[in-house]
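Section handout 9: paired folding examples.
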Amino acid sequence: ISIVKKIFLFLQSRLQLHLEKTVIAKFSRIATLSEMRKKELIDYYGINISNISVIPPGVNKDKFKNTNPNKNILNNFNINQNDPILLNVNRQEYRKNLDYLIYEIVKVKKIIPNIRLFMIGIGSQHDHLKLLARNFNLESNIIFLGQVEDVSKWYKVADYFVFPTKQEGFGQVILEAMASGLPSILFKNVKGFTQV
């Protein structure tokens, strides 16, 4: 990266921070979804602690708990109902670390050839992730469902929920997995998970 580009990026980030601080200073109250984000607002923007409220998201436990498992939906994908099923529900963005998840499926497939990963969500990395899966010959192992209206049935057909993100504001999908009774595989020490 050239020195000119470094200077430009530096100035751009300073200008963005100035604009954010100017806009945020105009609000008398700010709501955020976790204590971690509250601390970031205080540290990064210098907001008075008394002006910030933490309102954590929630889920309708009954919706996820009472959804009946219907493994017949796997037939639409020519998947044996006994195949091990992983589920990822995520915005498919770079910071979500989904490349890592695909690299791990490459390794797992060597031991468990019939492993399946259903990926629900869309985002700027969607096409890249599909190409990565194709390049590793994982089209039959990784199924990209895109945006799904009712995810509760997918939590019920999976064996594990996998969430490889290294940075998260809260992790509502973890609450959904918990409400569904689905064991979750997560990274340790992700700040946003401490309140889940």
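Moving on to protein 2 of 2.
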Amino acid sequence: GTMSGTGTTNAAGGLLLNGNVGTLSARTFTLPAGQTATLSGNNSGLGFGSGAQFKNAGTFLAQNDTSSDLFYNNVGSVPLFENTGTFTRDTTAGDFDISVPFANSGTVNVATGTLSLSGGDGSGPTTGDFKISTGALLDFKDDFDLVAGADVTGTGTVDFSIGTVTLGGGFAIPTVLVTGGTANFNAPTSGLQTLD
């Protein structure tokens, strides 16, 4: 279905996106602290258009991998996914792709599979943290500016495949891939075992 029109929708009882592709157009959707949104199921996704915004202050569970999971539908002004809470990619082993700008000032957990960030971080710097578990992959596919205090840690893998990523916070990841992008490390790294 489609949710459109100006104004704000507050999901005070949480949100389940399962089994189809929804559209958020020209509207702000807010998930409050203490609430959970889950995106799961085959062929599920959420398209953004006309400057729509999703503001996550709660817990967002990204549990599918259709490679068009949170995407910009190229209609109107550029949208935004704002994470001030917790965003967790888990359950499935494929690629969960976010092609809208992703502004993270909270915590992103990559527990399973791949989380691809292919829309950049919008107009502001990234101040939140990224935590990657063993066997999981965080793939930067656009420009990101992680300032001091925005830490990337864990036992998984980070790939810089497209764009330029500036890292000003702590970086403690054992496996780093640079397969096409540019990574600028402006702070010391630790725990690095493999650089490819």
